[in-house]
Amino acid sequence: MEAVFIAAALVFVAELGDKSQLMAMTFATRYRARTVVLGMGIACALINLASALVGEALGNLIPEHVLQVVAGVVFLVFAAITAWSLLGQEHEEEISVVPHSGRALVTVGLAFALAELGDKTMFATMTLATQYSWYWVWIGSTIGMVFSITLAVLLGKQILKVLPVRAVHAVAALLFAALGIWLLLG
């Protein structure tokens, strides 16, 4: 169960102010909130499942001490990338969405899935699944991301007035660094 809390918290904080929240806010201006959360939630569950299974497979193939060092380094790299993105960042760019008639759920789900491929939360989920049970990491990362998406849909653009993107990214960088150091120190 520890993995659920770690994955959920890490993914939730990492997603605050990220493109997935901006996509959710944008889609919520064109589609019903239920459609946005359901479409993104299904895509998120599938992406996180694949990420967790890949992480589990890697965890079974690579010795544990090597994985722990690699995982620690990966999270330190995420921290550096997140911190680096703060330099020169004045505002987050808007994401333009082209509306599609009829198949809103598929449109939202596919757009989200494509945007998330290769994202840091996908790699974070894989990395955590090398250390913990893939099932609990999948559940936790999906909960964290769906909660983040739901928050974005419900609060819309107001969230960025309460939580500046720079501050959210700074907290995410600190969490990634802390997890990386924790994994490296054992």
Automatic annotation (TrEMBL):
Which keywords does this chain's UniProt record carry? Membrane, Transmembrane, Transmembrane helix
Q: Which PANTHER family match?
A: TRANSMEMBRANE PROTEIN 165, TRANSMEMBRANE PROTEIN HTP-1 RELATED
Chief location of this protein?
A: membrane
What is the official name of this protein in its record?
Answer: GDT1 family protein
Subcellular location as annotated: Membrane
Q: Identify its membrane topology class.
A: Multi-pass membrane protein
**Keyword Signal part of the UniProt annotation:** no
Query: Per the similarity annotation, which family is this?
Result: Belongs to the GDT1 family.
Membrane spanning segments where? 33-54, 66-87, 135-155, 167-185
Q: Please, which domain of life does this record's source organism belong to?
A: Bacteria
UniProt organism field: Aeromicrobium choanae
Q: Which InterPro entries match?
A: GDT1-like
A GO cellular component annotated for this chain's UniProt record is: membrane
Cite a single Pfam family from the UniProt record. GDT1
Which molecular function GO terms apply here? Answer: metal ion transmembrane transporter activity
